[in-house]
Specification:
Layout lengths: L8 E3 L6 H5 L2 E3 L4 H41 L10 H8 L4 H5 L9 H6 L2 H6 L7 H26 L4 H23 L5 H20 L6 H4 L2 H37 L1
Parallel strand pairs: 1-2
Helix pairs in contact: 2-7, 2-8, 7-8, 7-11, 8-11
InterPro entries: ATPase_P-typ_TM_dom_sf, P_typ_ATPase_c
Membrane topology: Multi-pass membrane protein
GO molecular function: ATPase-coupled intramembrane lipid transporter activity; metal ion binding
Length: 257
């Protein structure tokens, strides 16, 4: 029966350890089941949803940029970003902040015990559904379009290196800002992951001179235009997020009471 359930829970008691060894989760006392469901279950679900969504977003926005680049340049068959930058984007530049979302908490443990009705809301599956996937798809389409088109209009003057440097810088900072906007309660590991990512990216800009012209990336024109692209990519999403958060907070309050 334990193995047939969606989540088998066994109690390590005097009767023996067979149930706890066969179960997915093992507890020492029956009253611990409340904490297992209301606290650990909620945090695991919310964190898994956030992590999955950002893994999807991180890949989609890159695909959108590549698609727009191919369309702009008569459907060329080569990658817009070199392989070393793609590897850096998937690892050192964005990996640590994305995986730091597993430490995020939308509420405290005490609040989860105080309002057990919030666990019932999770059973509706609204945090990770087709609707949320479509939302992140639209966000990726918008931000990828802004990053690529903004870089092309802003700096492109028969200089492919400047176009690549501007768009890639805006891409990395957009992803880091989006992660920061998603975090509910900051943990020291989140600050550290953001700092490590920024240091690695800044170091790569100085090391890979063939991709980042030092004179260009230190100019005021590059900083101003890149900042404007990042602002256009993130500010509308932040405004929508705040508005939806205010509306959903009132809705959740009514559902709880």
């Amino acid at each position: 029966m334990i193995q047939a359930a969606h989540a088998g829970i066994g109690i390590d008691a005097k009767e023996g350890k067979q149930a706890s060894l066969a179960a997915d989760f093992s507890i020492t006392q029956f009253h611990h089941i409340c904490r297992l469901f209301l606290v650990h279950g909620r945090f695991c679900y919310k964190r898994s949803c956030s992590l999955s969504q950002f893994v999807i977003h991180r890949g989609l926005i890159l695909s959108v940029i590549q698609a727009i680049f191919s369309w702009m340049f008569f459907f060329v068959s080569f990658s817009f970003y070199p392989g070393v930058l793609l590897v850096g984007y998937a690892t050192a530049f964005t990996m640590f902040p994305v995986f730091s979302l597993v430490l995020d908490r939308d509420i405290t443990s005490a609040e989860a015990f105080l309002f057990p009705q919030m666990y019932g809301i999770l059973r509706k599956g609204r945090s990770l559904s087709i609707k949320t996937f479509c939302i992140w798809l639209m966000i990726s389409l918008y931000q990828g379009t802004v990053v690529m088109c903004g870089s092309y209009v802003g700096v492109y003057d028969n200089n492919f290196v400047e176009l690549m440097a501007t768009s890639f810088t805006a891409l990395v900072f957009t992803e880091l800002i989006m992660i920061a906007l998603t975090i509910h309660k900051w943990h020291w590991a989140m600050y550290l992951s953001q700092a490590i990512s920024l240091i690695c990216f800044m170091g790569s800009m100085l090391y890979f001179n063939e991709y980042f012209n030092l004179k260009f990336i230190t100019s005021s024109n590059f900083m101003l235009r890149t900042s404007l692209i990042i602002l256009l990519a993130c500010l509308p999403i932040y405004i929508i997020k705040v508005t939806r958060g205010a509306l959903s907070a009132s809705t959740s309050y009514n559902q709880i009471y």
